[in-house]
Design brief:
With 263 residues, the protein is mainly alpha-helical. The chain folds into three domains: 20-108, no CATH class; 131-205, no CATH class; 207-263, no CATH class. The chain has twelve helices and no strands. Helix 5 crosses helix 12 (233-262), helix 7 (110-142) packs antiparallel against helix 8 (151-178) and helix 8 packs across helix 10. The longest helix is centred in the middle third of the chain and has 33 residues, at 110-142. The radius of gyration is 22 Å and the shape is globular. It comes from Candidatus Andersenbacteria bacterium RIFCSPHIGHO2_12_FULL_45_11.
Length: 263
């Protein structure tokens, strides 16, 4: 079993990978503008209503942009899979490849990656059901009818919360096991579907906790960077945009390390 590189080294490697291929990466990410244009009018109406103190529900009931928003949201999901696939292919390539090469490869692998992604999502969602079922049963059906109050309810709430968190741990493990299935499919390291799910689990096997805390650390780091620029107008737009790309580079760099270690 290999020992993964320190977290700061992996972040530095992701940054270097991004700098080496930033032009193509930015062009790929700009494809997300298309669904954004369709969604923008309704989002603008919603934000203006919030600023004016108007009930946002009135916006949804009276807007003429509802159809374009729905189409934009659907396109956001579909284009999101395409751009993420292209980014993964771009960063995973041993030699530098062009924007068109990455995008063409992503288009060719789109259906297998989408299929694999849906299977992964179904598995993760299914693993969340016990936690959500317990939470729903307690707060909606059971809590109001309990013959206790005050400190007793507070203590029971704490116990239920601990139980829910405990039930979320298997879901987190499954999510980490399966997270590389779309990437394995995108770079043709595995067949689509259940084979990719199995290969992803095998890839992470023996490194589960190392991988989990690195992914959590990366999410927290990039979130802190994005939040820290919210007061700067231009930076608040550019930094999250670029941080999202670097996050994919980090994800791919971690994959390379796991793949080379298991080779």
């Amino acid at each position: 079993m290999i020992t993964l590189l320190p977290f700061h080294t992996q972040v530095a490697n992701a940054w270097k990978t991004f700098l080496h291929r930033w032009g193509s990466a930015l062009l790929i990410q700009l494809l997300m503008i298309v669904p954004g244009i369709l969604m923008f009018p309704l989002m603008a109406e919603y934000l203006l209503a919030l600023d004016a103190g108007t009930d946002p529900m009135v916006v949804f009931q009276t807007t003429v942009y509802g159809t374009s928003f729905v189409w934009g949201f659907a396109l956001l999901l579909l284009v999101g899979v395409l751009t993420t696939t292209a980014q993964m292919i771009l960063f995973a390539a041993q030699d530098k490849i062009s924007f068109m090469t990455a995008l063409t490869s992503a288009v060719k692998r789109y259906i297998p990656v989408l299929y694999t992604s849906i299977l992964s999502a179904i598995a993760v969602i299914a693993s969340l059901i016990p936690a959500y079922a317990l939470n729903y049963w307690y707060y909606v059906a059971a809590r109001s009818g309990l013959p206790i109050d005050g400190n007793g309810i507070i203590a029971l709430d704490a116990v239920i919360m601990i139980a829910v968190v405990a039930l979320l741990i298997p879901a987190a493990i499954i999510a980490v096991w399966l997270m590389y299935a779309p990437l394995l499919t995108a770079v043709k390291a595995s067949s689509a579907g259940f084979t990719a799910l199995k290969d992803s689990k095998n890839l992470v096997h023996g490194h589960l906790w190392q991988v989990m805390w690195r992914i959590i650390g990366a999410v927290i780091l990039f979130q802190i960077i994005s939040v820290s620029t919210q007061t700067l107008y231009l930076a608040s737009l550019l930094v999250p945009f670029i941080a999202g790309i670097i996050a994919i580079a980090f994800f791919v760099e971690l994959y390379k390390e796991l793949h080379e270690g298991g080779a």
